[in-house]
Amino acid sequence: xxxxxxxxxxxxxxxxxxxxxxxxxxxxxxxxxxxxxxxxxxxxxxxxxxxxxxxxxxxxxxxxxxxxxxxxxxxxxxxxxxxxxxxxxxxxxxxxxxxxxxxxxxxxxxxx
Length: 112
Description:
The chain is an all-alpha fold and about 110 residues long. It has one domain. It is built from three helices and no strands. Helix 2 packs antiparallel against helix 3. It starts with a helix and ends in a 20-residue tail after the last helix.
């Protein structure tokens, strides 16, 4: 039974690490602030969530699991809220999404 818990926990931890890596690459490669916010939300919500679930399996039923669950709950509430607030601040500051911008011909800009 302990081997099964270890396998499940490492599967979650590795999946979370992979999503964090993909989100980190998204922060470097995506073209504008709105697309980069998507990469950051992947890291926060999915990557960290899977890592915390894997750590919960590793800890078993203890006070540590309760603390990890509370951290997970906090992240699931705050991460989308902060991403939304940042996107609204960018829109109110006059930053347009890349898809909404047009060049002199009325076409969206080409990808660099």
